[in-house]
UniProtKB/TrEMBL annotation:
Matching SUPFAM superfamilies: Acetyl-CoA synthetase-like
Entry's Gene Ontology molecular function annotations: acetate-CoA ligase activity; AMP binding; ATP binding
A Pfam short name: ACAS_N
Family annotation (Gene3D superfamilies): 3.30.300.30, N-terminal domain of ligase-like (3.40.50.12780)
First-level EC class: ligase
One GO term (biological process): acetyl-CoA biosynthetic process from acetate
Domain AMP-dependent synthetase/ligase: 68-458
Domain AMP-binding enzyme C-terminal: 520-598
Acetyl-coenzyme A synthetase N-terminal domain segment(s): 11-66
InterPro entries referenced in this protein's UniProt entry, alphabetically: Ac_CoA_lig, ACAS_N, AMP-bd_C, AMP-bd_C_sf, AMP-binding_CS, AMP-dep_synth/lig_dom, ANL_N_sf
EC numbers on record: 6.2.1.1
Protein name: Acetate--CoA ligase
Source organism of the structure: Mucilaginibacter paludis DSM 18603
Record's keyword terms, sorted: Acetylation, ATP-binding, Ligase, Nucleotide-binding
């Protein structure tokens, strides 16, 4: 079966077929990939345990799909174009042949350092080609990578390393983001104080800053590569994997204090990311595709590395930030590399929009053919700006709804196929069966309705478990509503059956497209020595989508209020990372609680949103007086 759908009529037919005969449908899609042995059974599943097995009995290695199978015809085609943080530094282009060789070489480095199938490897690196190489080298050996975003703190890294029991860490001396330099190795050193499982740290040279190198534990990437070169065997055969063997772990925030290690497996993830990439972006050979995400998040995993590479695409990787040296940076990149497909986030669009259209003057964006958005609901103003100023009204915008847990795109237009509507993720992709349910789990049928978004049938890219704690996977995603995967999102379905995601219905915030659990931030704030307790909620933020608003009880502040505020910010940066730092901290004498001691977040949310006129029923509060005080002190 063809990966790409050519018309809206065909979409409707294929969708229907994918619902009526899902196994057959996915087998047809999976036939487009390279398997060492095909599956015995397409699917076995139940959402009770849950147990989901796609393509059982099949053998493969995802890197043979991403690299080896392209060598004959596309060996000299660029696989990765890398644009450095500093526009004056040289860019790099790696062809499929070069990328293949580098992945094999680094896989041999990992082997020399004792890495084997099933081992967990933590990757904490800048957005340089070596990050993609490290990830693919792990996959080549069947080692399980756990990439941690470069903005997380030592404490967060340590938690993730301990949870996955990683033995090897791959990092760099430092990374650049705009004018800032992040001392990655030094952060790792702080993390490793708590991580006895780590036996080896491989350090790439990037920023040439001084770092400590511990004998017997730390080695330089470049030295290890030289060793492999002198050993003289450039190849590294890919390790044969079962379709359901783990490919990677990626930690994400939920409504409890501790991030979960979402687990994806080899076969289903490969098929799902490859299929959705080819179909949604309608990728044509020779096109240059630029996804602005970081590989530290799922978007980077699925749509910078695995999806595009499995399709032989040219994927552009950018090390820096959209606003440096100025807010025209994306457009310079589009112009320089004649980018055809641009996949970015609403927060980036809103931020660039705010600098005014002058930033677009003289930039040639005529190469652009397709645009994409991901990470949060896109507001209509940003959608229209993206459409008119960037796409010049000529490029379809795919507003792609999905999650770390779904592995790949779920509800999204198909470029040039699905009629779009601003703010709508539109229709489910083939093989995806969304339903809306009410609070009691009853299906809401018909159109012009809204409810909680669930998925009622498995798809190959879905998570299989949460690492080391399957029960947590069950209770988080499969226990809220029996026999359904619960997304945590609210959603409306309009008169045309089009889906619009309205945002999270649980205690998860979406700050600049990053998922942040309120409980996690509260835990971090509460670690500050003068804090008694706190409650964190989101509020609408012009650029970030949602901002973090913290109500903090701190009766004995150290020196001034302002200093305590700064100290709390610093504490959150240390515990989680700067991305979770509250935008607003309001000191309060108490929190609104019910008589049973539960914090009434509904009230706090309204106050944070500035909607203080109608707070609803406050009579069940232990101390209704506290609400007046909080209202009058709102920031
Ligand atoms: O609330 C939804 C929002 O981002 C959440 C998933 O976050 P994460 O796992 O970090 O993955 C982000 C990248 C896939 C979802 O539960 N979200 C993601 N895409 C959209 C969206 N909300 C609205 N529209 C989208 N296109």
């Amino acid at each position: 079966m063809n990966l790409k759908i050519a018309s809206f009529e065909e979409y409707k037919q294929v969708y229907q077929q994918s619902v009526e005969q899902p196994e057959q449908f996915w087998e047809g899609i999976a036939d487009n990939f390279l398997w060492r042995k095909k599956w015995d059974k397409a699917l076995e599943w139940n959402f009770k345990e849950p147990s989901i097995k796609w393509f059982q009995g099949a053998k493969l290695n995802i890197t043979e799909n991403c690299l080896d199978r392209h060598l004959e015809e596309k060996g000299d085609t660029p696989a990765i174009i890398w644009e450095p943080n500093d526009p004056n530094e040289d860019h790099r282009i790696l062809t499929y042949k070069q990328l293949h060789d580098k992945v094999c070489q680094f896989a041999n480095v990992l082997k020399n350092n004792g890495v084997k199938k099933g081992d967990r490897v933590c990757v904490y690196m800048p957005m340089v080609p070596e990050l993609a190489i490290a990830v693919l080298a792990c996959a080549r050996l069947g080692a399980i990578h756990s990439v941690v975003f470069g903005g997380f703190s030592a404490q967060s890294i340590a938690d993730r390393i301990i949870d996955a029991q990683c033995e090897v860490v791959i990092t760099a001396d430092g990374s650049y983001r705009g004018i800032k330099e992040v001392p990655l190795k030094s952060v790792i050193d702080d993390a490793l104080v708590r991580c006895p499982s780590v036996k080896r740290v491989i350090v790439l040279t990037r920023s040439h800053t001084g770092v400590s190198m511990i004998k017997g534990r730390d080695v330089w990437w470049e030295d290890e590569v030289k060793k492999v070169e002198t050993q003289g065997n450039p190849d590294c055969p890919a390790v044969e994997m079962d379709a359901e063997d783990m490919l990677f772990i990626l930690y994400t925030s939920g409504s409890t204090g501790k991030p979960k290690g979402v687990v994806h497996t080899c076969g289903g993830y490969m098929v799902y990311t490859g299929y959705t990439f080819a179909n949604v972006f309608q990728y044509e050979p020779g096109e240059v595709y630029f996804c602005t995400a970081d590989i530290g998040w799922i978007t980077g995993h699925s749509y910078i590395v695995y999806g595009p590479l499995s399709q032989g695409a040219t994927t552009l990787m950018f090390e820096g930030i959209p606003t440096w040296p100025d807010a025209g940076r994306f457009w310079d990149i589009v112009q320089e590399y004649k980018v055809n497909i641009l996949y970015t986030a609403p927060t980036a669009i809103r931020s660039l929009m705010s600098f005014g259209d002058d930033m677009l003057k003289g930039k040639d964006l005529s190469s652009l053919k397709k645009l994409g958005s991901v990470g949060e609901p896109i507001n209509e103003e940003a959608w229209h700006w993206f459409d008119e100023k960037i796409g010049h009204g000529q490029c379809p915008i795919v507003d792609t709804w999905w999650q770390t847990e779904t592995g790949g795109l779920m509800i999204s237009p198909i470029s040039n196929v699905t009629p779009t509507k601003p703010g709508y993720a539109t229709l489910p992709l083939p093989g995806v069966q969304p339903i809306l349910v009410d609070e009691n789990g009853k299906e809401i049928i018909g159109n012009g309705v809204s409810g909680n978004l669930c998925i009622k049938f498995p798809w190959p890219g879905m998570l299989r478990t949460t690492y080391g704690d399957h029960e947590r996977c069950r209770t988080t995603y499969f226990a809220t509503y029996p026999d359904l995967y619960f997304t945590g999102d609210g959603c409306l379905r309009d008169e045309d059956g089009y889906y619009r995601i309205t945002g999270r219905v649980d205690d998860v915030l979406n700050v600049s497209g990053h998922r942040i659990g309120t409980a996690e931030v509260e835990n971090a704030i509460n670690m500050h020595s003068s804090v008694v307790e706190s409650a964190v909620v989101g509020y609408p933020h012009d650029i970030k989508g949602q901002g973090v608003y913290a109500f903090v009880v701190s009766p004995n502040k150290h020196e001034s209020e302002e200093l305590t505020r700064k100290d709390i910010m610093m504490t959150v940066s240390r515990i989680i990372g700067a991305i979770a730092r509250p935008d607003k901290i309001q000191f309060v004498s108490g929190l609104p609680k019910t008589r049973s001691g539960k914090i009434m977040r509904r009230i706090l949310r309204k106050i944070a949103e500035g909607e203080t006129s109608n707070l609803g029923d406050t009579s069940t509060l232990l101390d209704p007086g506290v609400v007046e005080e909080i209202k009058s002190g709102a920031l």
